[in-house]
Fold this protein.
Amino acid sequence: MINNSNYSFKVFIDFDGTITKEDVGANIFLRFGRQPEVFEIVDKIRNREISNSEGWRQLFASLPYVDTNELIDFVNGFEIDAAFKSFLSFLNENKVDHYILSDGFDFYIDRIMEREQLNSISVFSNKLIIGDQGELIPVFPYKDEECFNCANCKRNHLINLSADEEFTIYIGDGTSDICPAQHADFIFAKSTLLKFCEQERISFSPFFGFEDVTKKMKEIFSKKRLKKRHQAELKRRAVYMMG
């Protein structure tokens, strides 16, 4: 154990493209969706013509009938980062609470986590219901009605699950990670999130896989003095003021 007992940490981890090597949700529509309809809907989301939740609804509505067993077989083909399990062991050894925050869906997240024998981890995601006719119906239990960007408000989870005195760590790669990462004290970023942090001059640690994250986190845990990220404190305070 190397966690400095003077400090307490909470770790929040994205799923698609972060824990998994590829974005499972996106690949479902690339594999089963009608083209170019899928790309037209994605462009509407990117251009903020529709919200993320409405985008998901339109994407699933655009799917032709998909056999559930075929979809499960497809999902089972996705691998997780080879170093993720050892990273979780590191967190557990240091008694650090950790959560998965995903703008994807429990249908594939739960299956992959169960396959990897990691289904004891707390996961906050959107839900996918299989209808009577085999239709796929997205449900958004954690949507913030005032937020246009994310179907599952990761920012709210990060704030609600951490205390003022705790240091928050966010690990992600995509568009849905931009908002929560800005409210975290330490950010691990790659891909779209990395580009955003560079553009906005937000301090972050780049990573390729969880081996990189574990190495850097050991450095953080061993420091005798840590400072909270000031801009993150201001953003969290602004959320508190909104009630």
